[in-house]
## 1
Amino acid sequence: MVTKTEETELNQLENQVENGGGGVWEYLSLVRKLKVRRSEIVLKHGLSILNDPGKRSALGPDEWTLYEQVAIAAMDCQSLNVAQNCIKVLKKKFPESKRVGKLEALLLEAKGMWEEAEKAYTSLLEDNPLDQVIHKRKVAMAKAQGKPSLAIEHLNKYLEVFMADHDAWRELAEIYVSLQMYKQAAFCYEELILTQPTLPLYHLAYADVLYTIGGLENLIAARKYYAATIDLTGGKSTRALLGICLCGSAIAQLSKGRNKEDKDMAAPELQSLAATALEREYKQKAPAKLNLLSSALRSLKISS
Amino acid sequence: MGTGSNGELKYEISQNAYIKLVLHSLRHKTAAVNGVLIGRISPKDDGVVEISDSVPLFHSNLALLPPLEISLIMIEEHYVAQGLSIVGYFHANERFDDVELCGVAKNIGDHISRYFPQAPILLLNNKKLEALSKGKERSPVMQLCVKDASKNWRVVGADGGSKLLLKEPSANVVLSDYITSEKWKDVTDVDDHLDDVTKDWLNPGLFN
Amino acid sequence: MAEDLVLDTAIRDWVLIPLSVVMVLIGILRYFVSKLMRSSPTPDAKMVKEGQVVIRARNLKVGANFIPPRSFRTRRFYFTNEENGLLHVPKGEATNPQAAMFSDPNMAMDMMKKNLSMIIPQTLTFAWVNFFFSGFVAAKIPFPLTQRFRSMLQNGIDLSTVDVSYVSSRSWYFLNLFGLRGLFSLILGDENAIDDTQRMMQMGGFGFDASKSLGAEKDGLDIIQHEWALPRFEQRAESVLRKLVK
């Protein structure tokens, strides 16, 4: 995950690079380190280095890393010829390399030659059955072909071995959500909460999923996880505050006529506090939307 | 107006509503995005639904209910004063060559049609969008889907989308202008707004 | 009894410095040779999985209170049930690491390569030093030492009358052999700082560790008392918000 400071550093460098202020190599290295997706800029500036023999040879052995980076960026931008040329250079330099083999398979993927790519990956897996990148590529390929259920199958198989890989759990959760398989998604988010119990992001996502599943018990649980998000973010999360209000109104509707004594059911204090916090936030930051928010909250029967 | 007359209904989308949605999907090229259509039944001719505005909604986890509910409430509240309401749903798939309407889109469409029975779903057609920069595509780059008598969503296809009209015929020209000037970078959706409330999903400065 | 010996500067130029330089060069050479010979370790799927299971079980133990009770119970059952729980190691199947080492020729081969790259250059240099420089007093350290250090510093000189602060050439060789590690880690980067003996111990210890920690994690999970932390968070959120809106 990219932190705030890293992101500002990256954006600063990007601005500098885009305005011709130099520091291209530093920018490219940072993109690699943070594993962010800025393919168009990487392609543009990486290629300008590669096309300049002086600059290129000044990199020393990093030259080959740059070829790899540019090749991947080019594939992302559908500049397949550029990618092909980069891979050709690398192939010449490292004829036996598995890493170049992966790039070649990736190129097949970019061309949409799914079967050939599949074959290439399978043969690469024979050499090293535990290559995580290739397993993940297979998932991505299934997704790209519009076969989410196959992607889920691959991911589950991958997670059987690499069950501590939270990125994979997250991907699985998102696929499940997109297929509206909320119960399964909830399981994945539980797993993510376990890996990083103090990260508000997962609490929020879990709460959203629980709310979407619905039912009194889930709504009450969702409210608790929204509360956790609020606690962990210091009350800064608009989504969680709104979530509390939504939960409150939904719970009130569902529990109509039931025993109101149940202390778990209603949390009027939390709701009104959340509403006040929201109104305060909007007043400070988006006064034009304050009326809108107030009437929205009124329609949820929360605010006065 | 019953479902029977649905077949003759025409949808007329204004340039701003149209461009906003397409730019939104361009901003998040690698993800599925959605939005809602704002408008009313034309006072002059009740066979026409005027889509006068649009609000870009989300670009991540479209299938989660809480953000959707809250945004629909807020949007309704905002437009009710102008006599407009939510009249349809816009969806752009994650993959380029995916022309199917996914379950999420259908469900949200169903939800909207509960309040506005003639509500259509507009699905972005990537092929047409790509052709826009090259040729002289005059018809909208979206596909119209409506509910048929048996409550299933179906694409109103073959007859060239004549049921979905651009109010201003120049809309596609303006759109390709905006695309080349990378105007899509300025679009904000409700997702952005929920992360940072200072960002306005009405996109007031977009067309200046 | 100790009279000052005057060391010829030629000894410095022709023994002390060449010896040190040769030792450094051989160290670097050895590093590259062993790098060439080291086959990249291909981990075994079972071992990787066991490691991952342990991490996940540990996460469950630490974060248990953050997920609802029912979710916790199903997970615990998944990990610890006696039939096919992930942490359940059937008796007798616990692998003996030493047996595994001998049954896997690659492992033995690896160790042999490592030993070869260590022993051969050492014997060669030792022979070389012995042949050319035996019996030299090569240097003098600037502080006095007790008699105990004689065997360490004056290896190869059988004179009991020489002051202990004089260092024989053979001892200089040994001092270099053991003392240059810090220099190497400066020259070759930190990777080299772990010396071979340590690496060997890690290798041997790893396989053993995994199956044993499976059992330990299972016991840990079994005794854990689940107490859902989330209800408390509602109060905490209330107090956070109260502070915020005030």
## 2
Amino acid sequence: MTEVERVSGEAGDFTVELVRTPRYIVEEKCTGCTTCVEYCPVNYPDPFNQELSPNKAVHIYYSQAIPLVAYIDESCLYLKEKKCRICEGVCKNNAIDFHQAPEKMAIKVGAVILAPGFEPFDPKLRGDYGYGRMPNVVTSMDFERLLCATGPYEGEILRPSDRRHPHKIAWIQCVGSRRVTPGDNSYCSAVCCTYTQKQVILAKDHDAAAECTVFHNDIRSYGKDFERFCERAEKLPGVRFIRSYVSVVKELPETNNVVIRYATPADGVKEEAFDLVVLSVGLTPPADAKRLAATFGIETNAHGFCKVDPFAPMATSRPGVFVSGAFQGPIDIPESVFAASGAGAHCGALLDYRRGKLTRERTYPPETEVAAEEPRIGVFVCHCGANIGRIVDVPATVDYVRGLPNVVYAQEQLFSCASNCAKEITDLAKEKGLNRVVVAACSPRTLEPLFRDTLREAGLNQYYFDMANIREHCSWVHSKEKEEATRKAKDIVRMSVARAGRLEPLQEFDLPVDKAALVVGGGVAGMTCALSIARQGHEVHLVEKDAELGGIARRLHYTLDGMDVQAYVRELVKTIYRHPLVHVYTHAAITEATGYVGNFVTKVRSERGPAEIKHGAAVIAIGAELYQPGEYGYGQDERVMTLLELEERIAAAEGRVVNAERIVMIQCVGCRNAERNYCSRICCSAAIKNALKLKELNPAVEIYILYRDMMSYGFSEDHYREAADKEVRFIRYEPQDPPQVEPLKEGGRAVLRVTANDPILGRGLVIDADVLALAAAVVPSEQTKEIAGLFKVSLSPDGFFKEAHVKLRPVEFAADGVYLCGLAHYPKHIPETIKQAYGAAGRVLTLLSHDTVVASGAVCEVDEKRCMACGECIAACTYGAIEFRETRQGKKAAVNPVLCKGDGLCNAKCPTGAIVLKHFTDEELLCQIDAAVEA
Amino acid sequence: MCAGRVDLAFVLRAFQNGMDGVFIGGCRLNECNYVTHGNFHALNMALLCRRIMEHVELNPERLRIEFMSAADGILFTEAVNDFGKKMKALGPLGEGEGLERGELAARLKRVAKLVPYLKLTQREKLASRLSREEEYRELFAREEVERVLREVVTYYIDPEKCQACMICARKCPVEAIDGGKNRIHVVDQEKCIKCGTCFEACPERFAAVCKISGQPAPPPIPEERRTLARKTKGAEKSPSAA
């Protein structure tokens, strides 16, 4: 609700003038109970749900909005006509304020990150495929909302014309993308192939009998695990993927079904009716990109996205202004996330001298020792405005609770989470001598941290708190059965009280953080990451197995974006060696790695001799390798080479290559097959870039690229088109019918005869080539397994390193304090590698910029007396947190609390009950189970 | 805390408390937000538990496990409503199955006591992660579980062989071995969890701990006869001291 009006100043010292439009709600008072929403008489189409369902003038933007408070928009009757004001009357917290006015403010900042996202392509403007005219033609964004549980029909897929479940659904790919017609975008939107597959899978989840058809061009499943995902969608029963351009012919008048015309090589042109048609719309620049660019004084590219330097993909044309997310161009969520973290790293480097200057530490009163006391439990039952109170009889619940064992105090509260009520809990805990607190309100997921804080304010250990969820688990689901809801609320609180009585005080402990980082791998990823960490003031140990830094980039010369890779790598290496905080170890091998987050000790043998490095964080950037093809005569005929070798020979101006009459490139050699079920992501662009380079050097050369799906996603699509325009021939082959290569003499000339079947033309092609270049797969580095073992991190099915979470934690491992970037994670282009390397640096800094890390108190502990050393807990722990140690009574399991994540799998496996997950002990949980039955 | 934390003992306790049904909700399979995939452990446990329920002649439908994400509100509603309806149709625990209350309680108590033993003997299966549904159907075959429950082992200390060396008593994780120096050790079958630690610990030359399968242990020797009459070399040398 805030707009940027003006930006002045320079990097390190900007003044940003903002205008905040009024919310007409006092944020501090609103608890998000949504009673006002219920009473608001306005009903208009909700833009958040693609205008498929109605909304109110006062509402919460969407169910996960932050802050989770309401606002009033311009459809409000009072704002329009000075009528109504019902919401003011029903708000029990007096949070409505119609006197609010737009507020101007100026803020001083050192750096700016632009993350305005994207705008989905709007097919309504031209009525593409009948969108806007035919009700049952929807966009993928509309469909996304239909699928969502918080969507217009609460997750039921209903089609717009008659609110019925569509049975036959068609998706049309590349709507608005990959086209040069006016109003369309020439680039590939990069995410639609995979999101469509996701939608197909979800549609089948909703209705197993649904018939789903995807009309597509290339399927660009170039991301990590995308190939498997695509296969998963393709293999579902009733799912068809048809490679065809389509047109929407008509709408059938009786049913509103939509007729699509398409063509297949086998059947020719066909027409088929569908209940629902989903247009897979592409990504376009944010709606106000032009204004944004003007306000911030940055340049945009030809497509209207932010202009970025491929070597510095998060930097805009204005120093101090950075960019992340889809404003950089069409990218998926994982890339957006690490780019965001990378933009943060840029800001960190710029503003490091002021790091921590604005932070304030909170102080709490000292903790009172109450473990020896009898439990004195205080219970606070929340009305949540009307959310709970309207259904559950709160006063009766409070009365009931007063009679429970160990409960010394109970009362009701209007909103327990409101700051005055939280304060009340603190005060009463002190006044009544409470030593345990139960709040019966909503889900602990959101508010447990707040209430734990409340306990700390009262001088109580924060683990003396339990939350009874009588909203999501009770009042919201039993709105029509008030009496039973009240009974259930009593049950829930009784269980909570039973557990509270057994809670133990736990200590979260602060672990000191060693301020240095270790970066394993001295390629572009490792060097970029190391440099970013060093520029943010931390010592970095950069370990490289080869004699020289640079990695695989040393063999690259140019990119599609026109980067001079060699010059870039030379400069990067120079900068690394010049930076006083970076210590380089070449010819290095890691012999031992021990420790945990904040406190690793790694032994390295290198040209510098043996070294023991102490570091707080480790980054794995060991890169990848190229597959050595056994196919197509590679290794036997020197005219057969990999694309990388072709590039090196072009750069060396080797006669055989630059003077060749005819060159064939074969894509997907050694990947997208049963053995390596993934796409190597970079090879299609590599083929295009080498083809363009060869054409530039020798315009007469004939080039044939035999491919399966051209993965020229994003802006590379323009280069694909350029190559086609320059008469590079792109010929598709099917995986079950790969090209054949035979060296022979033709008219006295030694050639490589390549035969391939063009599935579109349906006939064989014979090409006599001088040079054959193979797009050899990118494969995990040989060291991968060893490094994974040393740092106790895991690998994906394809053998690359596995991140902690694809979207939420894309550059981190599940093991705390260990990060990853570059090809070690998955094949990627240099700009993507750079983004990810900065991303990893950003995450490293969130750890290293603190003096300590806090380890949770809810971790496992072993009662050695009970341990029989069966090792079941060790097998159950995926974090390597449990090990045997020798004691006088023999081997016993021991938990390293720093590595334990508290999942408790070991507890369920332990036959003797020796291992105990604190805060969720058998005793605590069993007494809760017992308390479920009323005594 | 992960769904895999749900202990077999928790589920059985709920039934012992007279709950008519137990519903376990976990995250979607293969969509673990961490790297643990503990929901598979929960599934394994539930499958085993259903076999145990069959063994005590409870309807295994009374335990249900479903996998869903936080966004699957509708799926959750459907699952819970359906489960509730099924439980109503089945009637109160035991009554629906025509089991006498005391008999059911005794049976549940007996199997609940076997939880540690089951965890030990079924350890691999409980921690496995299978990919196909058919494999899951076969994970805990009925006959196999029945056999395990039939052939439950019992550990018993042969009073003739016990040398009262305290090794097993010290190692017992649940302090189920009664005895002291020169007092013949006896396994308290009420406390014993059948882990076999004593069996492993008893020095080979004594081999006093016996493993019996499928039948109860002989009654413990009476208190008054537990004092050990040592026949060691030392004792022979100075018989007068005894």
## 3
Amino acid sequence: MATSPVTPVEEYQSLLGVLPGQDLAWLRDLRDGALRRFSDRGYPTPRDEAWKYTNIAPLLKQSFIPSFSVEQPHKVLPTDIATSLFADADMPLAVFVDGAFNSALSNLSALPPGVELRSLREVLDHDGASLESLLVGMTPQEPHGFIELNTAFMFDGACVRIAPDTVAERPLHLLYVSSGAGQPVASYLRNLMIAGRGSRAAVIEHYVSLGDAAALCNVATHCMIEPGAALEHYKLNEEGAGAHHFAGLYVEQARDSRYVSHNVAVGGRMIRNDLRCVLAGEGAECVLNGLYLGRGREHIDNQTSVEHRVPHCSSREWYKGVLDGRARGVFSGHVMVRQDAQKTDAQQMNNNLLLSDEAEVDTRPQLEIYADDVKCSHGSTVGQLNPDVLFYLRARGIDEIQARRLLVTAFAQDVVGRMAIAPVREWAERLITARLAR
Amino acid sequence: MILTPWDVRKIMGETSRNLEHLIDREYKAGFVTDVEQEIFPPGLSEDIVRQISAKKGEPEFMLEWRLQAYRHWLTMSEPRWAHVNYSPVDYQSISYFSQPKQDKDRPKSLDEVDPRLIETYEKLGIPLREQEMLAGVAVDAVFDSVSIATTYRGKLAELGIIFCSFSEAVREHPELVRKYLGTVVPPGDNFFASLNSAVFSDGSFVYVPPGVRCPMELSTYFRINAANTGQFERTLIIADEGAYVSYLEGCTAPMRDENQLHAAVVELVALDNAQIKYSTVQNWYPGDENGRGGIYNFVTKRGLCRGINSHISWTQVETGSAITWKYPSVVLQGDNAVGEFYSVALVNNYQQADTGTKMSHVGRNTRSTIISKGVSAGHGQNTYRGLVKVLAGAEGARNYTECDSLLFGDRCGAHTFPYIEVKNRAAQVEHEATTSRISDDQLFYCMQRGLSREDAISMIVNGFCKQVFKKLPMEFAVEAQKLLGISLEGAVG
């Protein structure tokens, strides 16, 4: 990345031939434009309001090479990823290794009818025109350096289409593996999810690493929720101690649609999620459910934004954080109610638990309201485990570790409880317990 | 202000009776700019700073201090992060010094004052004598107030309390000024504070000696020579160990001023076991109903709880100014220190307010409370912006924040931007905010019981703000309630 003599701009020029969608002029323009904006503005700094609490300067001292420029990609075996799979063998699975689709590890035969999953690279190479309006249309409102680089370098990702009126019984498991072998690599992933009119589906975006080597993952996901559709979207971050993860999630909801996001971040040196949800059709509803558990020197930054553009929409947001060690948790929740969005019902809550003296939390709930007939509220708390409650449990023979585990599990329970898919819920519960086993 | 307490029902009756002729916001500048007045040419330079200092006969250290601030200001740029829009201020077109008005330029009696202004005074229930004061009637015509002020000053002097203009303090008590000036808001703190430090005209100075409880509410009102302190006011209040003082700034009566930019600085210092209570009612000219004109109020207010068990509380009612940029803050340095912020901010027409507070918890067991009530009407934009910061050493710090917004009409905005930074696990921080409008059910309930729509709204709004009004000195609270009703007129119904 930055300090290596190769700048992203030079890198782009030398690697242009490797990127998919060579013969698409619009894609070339899109990539060029993003790169131009990046070279004008560069990486975000703490002087940018949205990056006030996340300083990426140390990261820029390391160098990462784009994953697709690696000549001998690391081979990942099914046994390597076995522990990352959910206890449901029939769950359709798509595996991406270091930012590229791996069909040998995937299991797409289990895809239910009406659900299509293709690799973005393949679509761009063979059927690119079908993605033009989607990709061009998803430029975020306030793009920062990482998003621009993602657009310039997007290489692969999952392209999911749910046909209208399909009810997918099994969730789709998208597993992104960082192999950590060889030189540190940067993966540029772009996912597209289109939930057709009246459809119902669940997708699990799951990020893991094989070890604690340094890696950078830059991912952008775009979800289009068509009228009356419902999408349940899980984003699970369970990477190694050397992982840097920058994700953008852009959701656009049409009339009477429902979008539920479960965002769980439990591992990685630095995780940054930019989640933006636009309620563009009346009667749309979104639920943003989040949990972040930090320890060691982990840095987890969730920036969420919900925009109510039209009347009669509702949004709910619940984010909870547990910070231990020297971890730092950052939360920003922006709710914007446009002038026309009367009868909006927006609620937001962020609760944080600090388990150690060095842990830090910076939280910033924000309401920006231009309509009067609305019900909006937000709340935010920071505190520690209640010593009286701990004492109560210990007085009844429960040792301190057990008691703390019990209380933290209870604290996170409502977030975990909102997850509809049982294997994921169990995974989350196991993880919480494992992380508190000290 | 000295007022007999009002019966709430009576107030409400009066407010509604006069509804149609509300406070007229179209007034032209009531004070004529006087050619004979001594005014510096527009523009700012080191020379101007030197001249201001010379004019005021300041000691050398003051001049140095101003010059340093000025040089620092040159390196700074105007902050743009606030949620407000205004045309840029040309700092070179402002005149940075003008002598206070001479008596001969003032109106000789109330008959010469804009009748609409008088009408507003009457609505607020301000006694005649005070009306004369506020309207700037020549001092000799209001000798009663002069004698009141003199009596009060005598009483204060007996207790060793220093209460005088800033210029006087610089001349008479340079050691105190030197010791405390800039210790809370350093000259390089922010763009507007730097500007103020370089060119401040005058202001108030209060020093309460150890163990003294100031027996009355101090107010600039009792300081006759405080009239027209100008646009760059500087206030410094020091409560020495175990002292207590309550200070009132501003008044409910509409204030006119030909200066558009106001950049004041207020510094409070509370030593061990001291308490300072600072209340503000601000009703500067807000501009006309189309958003033309109006005061830019860019104020830096900060209190330092330096000693153990010290206590600083800010209470503000902000209804005026076209643009308000104001964050009365408390640095809780001493152990067990307490900081409080109670605020009502109201915007109507095209007013914009970006206001809130900063509570920095440094000492152990420090506590802070923030209650902010925002009312938006017309095209007004009301923003709460606050920071609660708990440093690693602030063991057992506690904060409670509540920000509520009330909206009238579909063209206004209410925004809440709190920042919470916690570095200590034994801290407990809570923030909550709600936004809503007056529900039809509430209105119906009141109107069904015979209240007019305006009275019902006034009552609901006053109920909404009650938590803050409770903290104001009683006379102030009564006027503030009425002021809110008046300021909202035209916005309701």
